[in-house]
Write a structure and sequence with these properties.
Chain lengths: 171, 441
């Protein structure tokens, strides 16, 4: 039984879709179940995903020039790895761009810092580059850009040639 | 009145020789003791991921050169293999071996630089000079094949830019022998050096559990005793056919990391030697048969439609394009017209080749992988170097994410430092081998 099948069996109703394009097993899950699934991945002995290898996000605004419509604008992508079993799994969480009901401007998902220490900096980078907040992160601040930076640089609506110098003449 | 003590905040870097110029540590000191460390990075941020989204797939290679600028070939290999996985193509056997040879040369240069720099920071200047000399031997090899020493852009999607030169095998064995000599020399200079040994031993200790929780891979993880190496765990290219060992440490201190790197260099040299025994024969440069024609003449004739017998002609190319002639090129490039540029004879000599060439280099055409996403890890010099690429079916990558091996290591750096003394910062920072190019991207 592959890790993906195990997750499907346990969290069938929380999974939006799955695929294994080029052998990379992937599950797209609803944001509310992220922590539960992550905990299951880490604590189940047959899965034993002791590594959060990578955590990043993708902005699907105008994906493929608008030809492919995605229901949600962002996806937070986690790559897990287990040294013991030598298997990998990709978990994707759909994140909405729309304003949260309590008026918060930024999309938000649960933080994985309580499970893997590596999530700390990865989530800071995602916040820095995409403006996705992580609920429960102890120190969510910018990591690559400076505090005065306005906007989130890897969002598709941030022009790649826009400049924000800290010193010197503005633009 | 009792004496009041307050901890002191000390800024180290970003403009500080021991910080390699690009990172800032804000340290809370109690006398000599480090009570807290905050790492501030981003001084070398060049928007690698954003820029990759604006160019075609093949144009990303120069950007990847600058990720880990001490072993740029491994970054090239990682990116190329990710795109190949996305396209679902396989490269020829000979190109695989060439990629392994180049990767391992780069790994040795990287480890040499790391050990040399940390030796120098502890006063072992001669060891630094010897090791940089050895690195230069290897850079000469890289230069012989790629034409450049650092910003090489040598690997192509579907193959490599050029075949090995006829003198390469001999040169390589000669240089390997020289490097081995230097390794023995520096081993004597460093391992038996009281100052170096004492400052490395039992400093910057990290436990296995902390390292795994922080997602650390590579020599740093192996020094703690976990034998995880992507080349063994998920063999790519031809690593499954090669015999090498994965050295591990026991304690995870700076000295272990030094020993692991020293042992790994020897393993890498072994891999290179085995590659030369196993590599399938290819035509070697210099054995040009048939009529040779200047590229400009060939273009002139082709314009007039005088292409009679061009199939047998060899084109005389500019040195920077050497190795792109048909005879060598086909052995090192995948047989995929939609991905690999045609050999130069085809480009200059007939309309189909010319169209093929332009279809791949023109804006809006280029390589178009199917819609999908892939992650592919290779063993970089610092650990698992993974690329995650999302394609939307167009000629530009929708998203290129690089998982830099330094990044988790730097996030765990405070754990190594807190509780030790200020002077331990230097060996610890040296042995984590922070490469700002890939850390800040």
């Amino acid at each position: 039984m592959t890790p993906l099948e195990k997750v499907q069996e346990k969290f069938g109703k929380d999974i939006v879709e799955t695929h294994a394009f080029r052998g990379d097993e992937t599950a797209v899950i609803r944001p509310a179940s992220l922590l539960a699934v992550a905990k299951f991945l880490k604590d189940t002995p047959e899965l034993d995903f002791n590594y959060l290898m990578d955590l990043t996000a993708v902005d699907y605004l105008f994906f493929a020039g608008g030809r492919i419509q995605k229901e949600f604008r962002f996806e937070v992508v986690c790559h897990f790895y287990s040294i013991k079993h030598n298997h990998r799994l990709r978990l994707k969480v759909q994140v909405d761009d729309r304003e949260a009901p309590d008026g918060r401007k930024h999309p938000e998902v649960d933080s994985l810092t309580s499970l893997w220490a590596s999530a700390d900096w990865y989530e800071r980078e995602v916040w820095d580059m995409y403006g996705i907040r992580f609920k429960g992160h102890p120190n969510l601040k910018r990591i690559l850009m400076y505090e005065e930076f306005v906007g989130h640089a890897l969002r598709k609506d941030y022009p790649f040639d826009k400049r924000q110098p800290l010193i010197g003449p503005q633009n | 009145m009792p004496t009041q003590t307050r901890s002191m905040l000390l800024n180290v870097g970003p403009s500080h020789p021991a910080m390699h110029g690009v990172i800032r540590l804000i340290m809370e000191l109690d006398g000599e003791k480090i009570k807290g460390v905050e790492v501030e990075m981003g001084y070398l941020h060049r928007a690698f991921e954003k820029m990759c989204e604006t160019v075609m797939y093949a144009q990303c290679f120069p950007y990847t050169d600058r990720l880990n600028y001490v072993s740029p070939l491994i970054n090239n290999v990682g990116f190329a293999m990710t795109v190949e996985k996305l396209l679902g193509i396989e490269v020829p056997e000979r190109a695989k071996y060439i990629r392994v040879i180049m990767s391992e040369i780069s790994r040795v240069t990287d480890h040499l630089t790391c050990i040399a720099a940390s030796g120098m920071e502890m006063g072992a200047m001669s060891a630094f000079l010897y090791m940089i000399k050895a690195r230069d031997y290897l850079y000469e090899l890289v230069e012989e094949i790629t034409g450049a020493r650092l910003t090489i852009s040598y690997i192509r999607i579907g193959g490599v830019k050029a075949d090995l030169t006829p003198t390469f095998t001999d040169n390589c064995f000669k240089k390997i022998a020289d490097v081995r000599k230097v390794l023995i020399e520096t081993d004597e200079l460093l391992t038996r050096n009281r100052i170096f040994f004492d400052r490395m031993k039992d400093t910057g200790i990290m436990s296995k559990e902390t390292a795994m929780s922080h997602g650390i891979t590579g020599p740093f993880l192996r020094s703690t005793g976990v034998a995880y190496d992507v080349r063994k765990a998920n063999p790519y290219l031809v690593y499954d056919k090669l015999d090498f060992e994965v050295p591990v440490g026991t304690k995870g201190d700076n000295l272990d990391r030094y020993f692991v790197r020293m042992a790994e260099m020897e393993q890498s040299l072994r891999i290179i030697e085995q590659c030369f025994q196993q590599i399938p024969d290819g035509p070697v440069l210099g054995e040009l048969t048939g009529e040779v024609m200047k590229a400009s003449d060939m273009v002139d004739h082709a314009k007039m439609g005088e292409t009679q017998g061009f199939k047998e002609f060899q084109v005389d190319l500019d040195p920077t394009l050497q190795g792109s002639t048909k005879k060598y090129y086909d052995g090192i490039s995948a047989d995929q017209k939609s991905v690999v540029l045609p050999a130069k004879e085809e480009t200059y000599g007939n309309i189909e080749g010319l169209m093929n060439h332009f279809k791949l280099v023109m804006y809006g055409h280029g390589i178009k992988p199917p819609v999908g996403e892939v992650y592919f890890p290779v063993e970089g010099a610092n650990g698992e170097l993974g690329f995650y690429i999302v394609s939307d079916g167009r000629d530009h990558p929708w998203r290129v994410r690089v998982h830099p091996p330094c990044f988790p290591i730097m996030s765990a750096l405070p754990k190594c430092l807190v509780g030790s003394v200020m002077a331990d910062l230097i060996p610890t920072f040296g042995s984590v081998n922070m490469i700002a190019g890939e850390l800040d991207r």
